[in-house]
Amino acid sequence: MKAQDGTNLSKALANYEKQFQSLPYHELPHDIVIFDKQTLDLSAWTLIVTDKCLKRISTNPCNDGDNNSIRVLNLSGGSKITDVGIKAISNSLYDAENVLLENVFRITDKGLTEVIKRCRNIKKLSLSGCLGISGNGFAILGQYSLHLSSLKLSGCRQISTWSFMKIFEGCNQLNELDISYCSLITDQEINVLASRCEMLQRVNFKECCQLSDVGILSLVQRCTHLLSINLARSDLVVRITDVALMAIGESCKHLLSINLAGCSKVSDTGISWLTAGCPLLIYLNLSGCNAITNGGMKYIGEGE
Question: Tell me: the pLDDT tens digits for 190-201?
Fold first, then answer.
């Protein structure tokens, strides 16, 4: 399986390089290198953005001065970017509030540390798909990123339970958290999250299959301002039952959206508790919830 994954990755990278050869640009245009709106979005240039590009931007004299400190940085999809480029651009990030590094899979703990130590006031951070960062490397967020309101770590399956503990203990201003496909997280870490981040509004736990009714109960009893919950799963479906829906219905009066796809152990009873307690609900995904009958659908209709 691993050999096959490696072959597929090699083919994907080869196709990527072929696309690069046919591009009209082989380096960033001059007007991209000079930024004057405190926003640097290179996500549309991922085929050609390299460490050299980032060095060029950081050393361009036109980008000197307080007015050109980067507040919003988007390098998402930058497959050629490494710690070297991250270190170069981090010199312009002392006022950064929003940093998106989704699928920049070549950065490691060293690159993440460069960014986090510079961006002490960062509020929104996306590291989804950053597989080069070690399981324990993410823990630095809990030490330095104390003002984070939005954190996205989707697909970072390597994050250790210890790192989750450190993140949740330090980042207590979170209102949005996406840890979908982070398969190592358990109810114990969710309990810490609930005790530290009571202003949470949006959580994405898709395919966090070790989470159970216990963790959800702990979360919703403390985080009563939740607007969106994603519990979709394809494995260990027995861990989410009507008990979780009862707790959500009792505590989350402002809930607007919930995804229960694959939670085959929830029944009509759970749906009745959920819809009765969440009158503002506008999105409900019950795909694969085979225990739901026409009776359960009736509760949904009455809730509308």
Answer: 999 999 999 999
